[in-house]
């Protein structure tokens, strides 16, 4: 047995492997717990159409939707906002043309989305599959 003491100070040894292990665990924990979310607002640019001027053609049914949800069909007000009432009014406005009639929806820019969907649903119930939407020219005259 060798009980002799060494002469001089003993040099400390730093073991870095446990330190690296702990840092890797911390990095993995931070990567898994961090949420990467985008903070951006939804920006919608509504399209503008350069459509022809409306011409009175037979077989067209003009449906207008006001900002407060009232309906008119061929400039005649519809009583109530019920889909069945609107479908009956569309059916009578289409007349004998029936499935060949074109429904033109002219909705106010501030009209509720549900009101426009109601017109689409009423047209489907009335058996009028041809549907289009009226637009207006842009304020700058269409130069884009």
From TrEMBL:
One of the Pfam families matching this protein, by short name: ExbD
Coiled coil (residue ranges): none
Membrane-spanning ranges: 16-36
Main location as per UniProt: membrane
Keywords annotated in UniProt: Cell membrane, Membrane, Protein transport, Transmembrane, Transmembrane helix, Transport
Keyword Transport: yes
Keyword Transmembrane attributed: yes
Topological type in the membrane: Single-pass membrane protein; Single-pass type II membrane protein
Compartments (UniProt record): Cell membrane
PANTHER family: BIOPOLYMER TRANSPORT PROTEIN EXBD-RELATED, EXBD MEMBRANE COMPONENT OF PMF-DRIVEN MACROMOLECULE IMPORT SYSTEM
Family: Belongs to the ExbD/TolR family.
Protein name: Biopolymer transporter ExbD
Organism of this sequence: Pseudaquabacterium inlustre
């Amino acid at each position: 047995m060798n009980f002799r003491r060494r002469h001089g100070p003993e040099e400390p040894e730093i073991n870095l492997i446990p330190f690296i292990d702990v840092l890797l665990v911390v990095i993995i924990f931070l990567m898994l717990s961090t949420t990467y979310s985008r903070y951006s607002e939804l920006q919608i640019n509504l399209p503008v159409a350069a459509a022809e001027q409306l011409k009175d053609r037979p077989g067209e049914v003009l449906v207008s939707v006001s900002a407060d949800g009232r309906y008119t069909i061929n400039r005649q007000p519809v009583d109530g906002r019920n889909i069945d009432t609107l479908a009956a009014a569309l059916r009578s406005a289409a007349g004998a043309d029936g499935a060949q009639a074109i429904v033109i929806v002219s909705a106010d820019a501030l009209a509720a989305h549900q009101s426009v969907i109601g017109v689409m649903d009423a047209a489907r119930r009335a058996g009028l599959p041809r549907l289009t939407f009226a637009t207006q020219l842009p304020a700058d005259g269409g130069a884009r």
